[in-house]
Amino acid sequence: MNVFRLAGDMTHLLSVVVLLLKIHTIKSCAGISLKTQELYAVVFAARYLDLFVHFVSLYNTVMKLVFLASSFSIVWYMKRHKIVRRTYDKDHDTFRHYVLVLPCLLLALLINEKFTFREVMWAFSIYLEAVAIFPQLVLLQRTRNIDNLTGQYVFFLGAYRVLYILNWIYRYFTEPHFVHWISWVAGIVQTLLYADFFYYYIMSWKNNVKLELPA
Amino acid sequence: DSEDAKHDEL
Question: Which residues in chain B have Cβ-Cβ distances shorter than 8 Å to A120?
Fold first, then answer.
């Protein structure tokens, strides 16, 4: 494993930790999109079907289980926890799942590395992950007061994507057979979605003012 | 192989 990949996994993990911290200790999910969290739960469930088939390493298995468990427990907290669910900004989180899920499923049926159930599910998870942040970004734009933890959560998620691209560039030069167009193209699209957010996040940090996205 | 490399990512 190269350093970019490890750093990418760690920022991804950190984003989940930040979100769990907010939910678990502050008992608030204000500014967090349930739609995005549900989409991530679907992404991990579809991608990690290989847990039953492949064993890569202990690290790999543990990380996959952590992402599965954390994504489902976040959804549970936002929907069922009696205190947390009251902080959910339902009125502004209006993005519809099927707008993202159906095109991704269709695309996965058309463009995949092999037409098997697992490969189609893998491609579907890659496409869906690329756009799953969309409801969250829309919600941020509608939120007047974006708290620090929410800003950091999205920042770490974006950082994870940037680091994964550096990881692919590294792997491309060190492992000649490592070419996965599907994940590369989807990954670049996914990273570009954060570009706007990054700009405002860094600006707010530089000028020491509260993060706010223009409508 | 390439297949394994793909599943090694998260």
Answer: none
A4-53 tens-digit pLDDT: 999 999 999 999 999 999 999 999 999 999 999 999 999 999 999 989 88
Tell if the CB–CB gap between B6 and A183 is shorter than 8 Å.
yes
Q: Across the interface, do B1 and A177 touch by the CB < 8 Å criterion?
A: yes
CA torsion sign for A200, A202, A206, A209 is positive
CA distance A15 to A158: 9
Q: Is the pLDDT of residue A145 over 80?
A: yes
Residue A98 Cα distances to A94, A95, A189, angstroms? 12, 9, 19
Pairwise CB contact (< 8 Å): B2 & A179: yes
Distance CA A119, CA A56 (A): 17
| Tokens of residue A68, six digits | 């599965």
- Report the complex ipTM: 0.83
How far is it, in rounded angstroms, from Cα A29 to Cα A19?
8
Instruction: Give the residue carrying structure tokens 């680091």.
Output: A163
**DSSP H helical segments within chain A, as ranges?**
3-25, 34-47, 58-80, 97-110, 117-131, 134-142, 148-174, 181-193, 195-206
A123: pLDDT strictly greater than 70: yes
Residue A142: exposure state from Cβ atoms within 10 A (0-12, 13-18, ≥19):
middle
> Does A110 score more than 90 pLDDT?
yes
